[in-house]
C-alpha cells in the first residue's frame, strides 16, 4: 500500500515535469505588452543613437585625459645595441703617435656596443597646454549636453512613432466597426431582395463596399506590422522579441480634450539644449582664443637623462665581466617664440571670428526658439478647436446614420442615402482620431521647443 502511494506520487511528479517542459516554450514566446512608458525607457537604454552618444561622451573624457598628460612628467627608457662589422677609420695627426708630418689611419671603439638609459622631462610652464586642458573639459561638457539632446530626440521620435501607430490602431478599429455595420446592412438587404423589396444591384453595391473595406483592413494591418517593426528597431527592441503595443489607457487621448494654457511668457531659453550647447561652445571659443594668444609666451621644461654604455669585441654584455660606464645629465630648457611667419596671429584671428560666429548663432537661436514656440502654441490651439468641431461632426454623423438606416428599413430612404451616411460616419471617426493625435503631436512640439521633453519621463515614473 505504501509502495503504491510512492509510485503514484512519483508518477504525479513526472507528469508535472513533462507539463512544465511543454509549457516552457509557450511561456518564453509569450507576447510582451509595452506601453509608451516602456518604449521610452527601452529606447533610452538600448537605442543605437543613445549608445553612440554615450560612446562619444566617453571619447571626450579620454581626450581630457590626453590633454592632462601633456603637462605631466614623461618618462621613457631606451636600449641601443650596435654591431660594427667594420670599425670606423679616422685620420689623426702623426704627432700623436711620434710620427710628425704624417697622417695616420686609426680605428676607434669596439666591434660591439650597448647603450641603455632612461629619460625624464616635464613641463614647468606651458600656458598653451593648460588652456587646452580647459578646452577639453568644456568639450566634455559639450558632449554631455549632446547626449541629453540625443535623449530628447529619442523621446520625441518615440512618442511620434507611437502616435502614428495609435492612429493606425484607431483606423483599424473604425474599419472593423464599419465592416460590422455594412455586413449587418448586407444581411438585411439580402432579406429585402428575397422578399422583392430591394434590387440585386443594391446588394451588389454593398458587396463591393465590403470588399473595399476588407482591402483597407488588410492594408492597415500590414502598415501596423511595418510601423511596429520600425518602432521596435528605433527603441532598441530585439527583433526576436514577441511584443505588441499596450493601448490600455490610450483611449484618454480621444476622450479627454482639456485645453492647456502654455503661456507664451513661460519660455526659458536656458531650458533648451540647443541654446545650452551654443553657450557651452562660446565658453570653448573663449579658451581657444586664450590658448592661441598663449603661444606668444615662452615655455619652460626640465629634463634628466641617465645612461649606461658598454663596449666589447664580443657579445658578453650579460656576463659578470661586462663593464658599463655611466653618464647622466639634467637641465632646464626655456623656449621663446620669436617669429612664426604670422601663423599664430592667423590662429588668433580665426578664434575671434569663431567667437563672433557663435554669438551670432546664439542670437539666431533665441529668435528661432521664440518663433517656433509661438507657432507651436498657435497650432495647438487651432487643433484643439478642430478636435471639438470634429467631435460634434462625429456625433452628428452617427445620429444621421441611425435615422437614415431606420428610414431605409422602413422603405423611406434609398440605399445610396444609407451608404453615404455610413461613409460619413467612417470619415468623421477617422478625422476625429487624426485631429486628436495631431493635438498630442502639437503638445509634443511645444515640449520640444521649450526644452521640457524630459517632463514626460517624470510623469511616467
In a few lines, what is going on in this structure?
The protein is α+β, with helices and mostly antiparallel strands and 461 residues long.
Describe the structure.
- The chain is an alpha+beta fold and 461 residues long.
- It folds into two domains: 48-71 and 126-297 and 340-460, Outer membrane efflux proteins (OEP) (Up-down Bundle); 76-123 and 303-336.
- It is 64% helix and 14% strand.
- It is built from ten helices and eight strands.
- The strands form three sheets. The protein has a four-stranded antiparallel beta sheet, with no helix packed on it.
- Helix 2 (36-46) packs parallel to helix 3 (48-69) and helix 2 runs antiparallel to helix 4 (127-194).
- The radius of gyration is 41 Å and the shape is elongated.
- It starts with a helix and ends with a helix.
- Residues 1-6 have low confidence and may be disordered.
Amino acid at each position: 500500500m505504501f509502495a503504491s502511494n510512492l509510485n503514484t506520487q512519483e508518477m504525479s511528479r513526472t507528469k508535472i515535469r513533462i507539463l512544465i517542459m511543454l509549457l516552457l516554450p509557450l511561456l518564453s514566446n509569450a507576447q510582451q505588452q509595452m506601453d509608451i512608458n516602456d518604449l521610452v525607457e527601452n529606447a533610452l537604454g538600448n537605442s543605437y543613437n543613445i549608445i553612440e552618444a554615450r560612446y562619444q561622451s566617453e571619447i571626450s573624457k579620454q581626450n581630457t585625459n590626453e590633454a592632462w598628460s601633456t603637462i605631466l612628467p614623461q618618462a621613457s627608457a631606451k636600449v641601443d645595441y650596435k654591431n660594427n662589422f667594420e670599425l670606423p677609420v679616422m685620420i689623426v695627426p702623426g704627432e700623436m703617435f711620434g710620427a710628425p708630418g704624417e697622417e695616420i689611419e686609426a680605428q676607434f671603439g669596439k666591434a660591439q656596443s650597448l647603450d641603455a638609459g632612461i629619460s625624464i622631462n616635464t613641463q614647468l610652464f606651458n600656458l598653451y597646454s593648460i588652456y587646452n586642458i580647459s578646452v577639453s573639459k568644456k568639450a566634455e561638457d559639450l558632449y554631455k549636453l549632446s547626449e541629453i539632446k540625443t535623449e530628447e530626440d529619442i523621446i520625441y521620435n518615440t512618442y511620434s512613432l507611437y502616435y502614428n501607430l495609435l492612429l493606425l490602431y484607431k483606423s483599424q478599429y473604425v474599419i472593423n466597426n464599419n465592416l460590422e455595420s455594412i455586413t449587418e446592412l448586407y444581411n438585411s438587404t439580402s432579406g429585402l431582395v428575397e422578399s422583392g423589396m430591394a434590387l440585386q444591384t443594391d446588394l451588389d453595391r454593398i458587396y463591393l463596399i465590403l470588399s473595399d473595406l476588407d482591402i483597407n483592413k488588410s492594408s492597415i494591418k500590414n502598415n501596423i506590422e511595418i510601423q511596429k517593426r520600425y518602432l521596435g528597431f528605433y527603441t532598441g527592441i530585439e527583433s526576436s522579441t514577441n511584443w505588441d503595443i499596450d493601448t490600455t489607457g490610450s483611449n484618454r487621448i480621444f476622450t479627454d480634450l482639456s485645453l492647456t494654457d502654455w503661456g507664451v511668457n513661460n519660455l526659458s531659453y536656458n531650458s533648451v539644449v540647443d541654446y545650452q550647447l551654443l553657450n557651452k561652445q562660446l565658453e570653448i571659443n573663449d579658451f581657444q582664443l586664450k590658448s592661441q594668444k598663449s603661444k606668444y609666451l615662452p615655455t619652460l621644461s626640465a629634463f634628466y637623462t641617465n645612461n649606461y654604455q658598454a663596449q666589447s669585441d664580443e657579445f658578453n654584455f650579460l656576463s659578470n665581466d661586462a663593464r658599463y660606464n655611466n653618464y647622466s645629465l639634467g637641465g632646464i630648457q626655456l623656449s621663446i617664440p620669436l617669429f612664426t611667419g604670422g601663423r599664430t596671429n592667423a590662429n588668433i584671428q580665426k578664434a575671434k571670428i569663431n567667437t563672433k560666429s557663435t554669438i551670432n548663432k546664439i542670437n539666431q537661436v533665441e529668435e528661432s526658439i521664440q518663433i517656433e514656440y509661438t507657432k507651436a502654441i498657435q497650432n495647438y490651439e487651432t487643433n484643439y478647436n478642430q478636435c471639438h468641431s470634429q467631435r460634434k461632426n462625429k456625433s452628428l454623423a452617427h445620429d444621421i446614420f441611425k435615422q437614415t438606416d431606420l428610414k431605409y428599413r422602413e422603405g423611406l430612404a434609398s440605399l445610396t442615402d444609407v451608404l453615404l451616411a455610413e461613409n460619413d460616419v467612417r470619415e468623421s471617426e477617422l478625422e476625429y482620431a487624426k485631429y486628436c493625435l495631431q493635438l498630442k503631436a502639437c503638445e509634443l512640439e511645444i515640449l520640444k521647443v521649450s526644452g521640457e521633453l524630459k517632463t514626460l519621463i517624470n510623469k511616467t515614473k
